[in-house]
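Open question from group meeting: does this chain pack into something compact, or does most of it stay loose? Before anyone orders reagents, we agreed to write out a predicted structure and look at it together. Recording both the input and the output here so the notebook holds the full record.
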Amino acid sequence: MSTIFVTGGAGFIGSALVRLLLADSDHVVVNIDKLTYAGNLESLADCADNERHIFSPTDICDRAALDALFAQHQPAGVIHLAAESHVDRSIHAAGDFIQTNFVGTFVLLEAARTYWNALPQAQRDSFRFHHVSTDEVFGSLGPTGSFSETTAYDPRSPYSASKASSDHLVRAWQHTYGLPTLVTNCSNNYGPRQFPEKLVPLMILNAVAGKPLPIYGKGANVRDWLYVDDHARALRLVFERGQVGATYCIGGNAERTNIEVVDTLCAILEELSPRRGGGSYREQKTFVADRPGHDLRYAIDATKMRRELGWSPQENFATGLRKTVAWYLANADWVGHVQSGEYRHWLERNYGNRT
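Structure tokens returned:
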């Protein structure tokens, strides 16, 4: 049994990884999350009584607090997901993204390096710092081709620039100091428990509430969609078996235009939860002014993940999207708490002083 730090473990992807590690491994998970607006411990309700889950409401920019956590828990590694992650928010509040994604990663790297330097040699050799990033650092693709581990960086938004900067920090700490790091870049995630500002949950929840379904531009922007539990499995594989210093691209092999995503969601909803008064959910579609600098197309070539680690997605887009819609329809309490802000009280009610 070893201890792993998961930063951002109350977020969408982080909570999926925490649930996987607690269910399918013997690791003790120290979940480090300062619980900004999208951090939701209610997504970890099934883990609240698990003694191998230790929650710490720590800001990754707080060096003293991080040093204390490393000294107390003696982790075998770090999987770093803590980040501000929504492009639209980054356009209007870029400073938050620089602080968390760039400065926070620097502070965490330094805390990890100090701890790692003091370890016995065998533990130094086995320690890993796994930085989780995004395909958005690569910029925008034309109508053909895919991002891979050798694609040049070309970030186009404050969010992607902050993540690209943090990627470079992690690689520099490996090259300069020898810290054993790994980097993964993933495509668009979707699945249960995603904060409803993102496309898939926003469309589901607006549809059933009878609200407009806002689509940027003409809905022609293309993304490669990755089911969140498939991503969590990939992250665990890279952390446990990836080559130090390597980068791995993780994608779902499921390219869709935004309009195709919305139309598919509408079709699933019409089957699982027909619209009140009849008609099609597609009637609620509305087109809005495009986002500034909206990248046209992303796609991931995950060949290296398949070849070196034997990973491939278990969900295709049809099965994953259907599971996602069904989950949101069946979990009205979770949705209601997120939309009302009630989820912020989950920590006090269910974790008490177990932090």
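Observations to bring back to the group:
The longest helix spans residues 94-117.
The CA atoms of residues 222 and 257 lie 4 Å apart.
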